[in-house]
Each structure stands twice: as structure tokens, then as C-alpha cells.
User: What shape does this take?
Amino acid sequence: MHDPAARFFKCSDRERAIFEAGIKLGTIYHQYVGAPLNLSNVHSLERAMEDSAKVQPFVEEASVRIDKDIISKRQGVYKYITLAGEMLDVRIVVRYKEERITACLKYVPEIDYPLMYVEG
Assistant: This one.
């Protein structure tokens, strides 16, 4: 894929791939956290998140899983909750030129935080 913005980046191709993955994970987190959901729409929300990531530049793969157990346990009187970072398990594969990286967003209980990190 031709990259018209390449001249603005003073970094390696791997660093650029990691940068791009960070944008994708940040977009998913900040765009969707707070969205209302229940078990009837969780699958469509997962697909929407994946599809929105896949149309962004350099994305080869995207998978999103939302913890359905949390939804089941926390539904209130109105039978829905809002999406929280601790419910997300996201994996994005980005290829920039010859560099291919996998980045994740996953809740890590030991640090009590929805962490975005480079897996490989």
C-alpha cells in the first residue's frame, strides 16, 4: 500500500507499525467504552468494533471479544450495562511494509487495568 504520509515519520517501519496499532486500539477503546449493551447486542457490537478497525490503514486482522459473563452478572433493572475497558479483549494485526505486529487490549487483573500492549 502506498503511504502518502511516510515522509512525516522519522522512525523504523516496525515503530510505524506499532504506532498504527496504538491508534487502532485507542480508537476502539475511546470510541466504544460507555456504549450501552446487553446479551442481545453484544455480538453486533463486537462485529462493529472489528469492522471499524479493519477499514483503517495497514490493518490485516482484528478480533474483539466482550466478556459476556460480566454482562450477565451486572445487568441492572433495565437489563443493560455500559461497556467498560475491563470487558474488552482485542487483538489487532498491523502490517507496515515488511513489518507485521500484533497488538492487544486486554484487562490485566494483576494491575487492575485495561492494558494496550505489543504482543509480537
Summary: The chain has one domain: 11-118. The two ends are 22 Å apart (CA to CA). The mean pLDDT is 95.
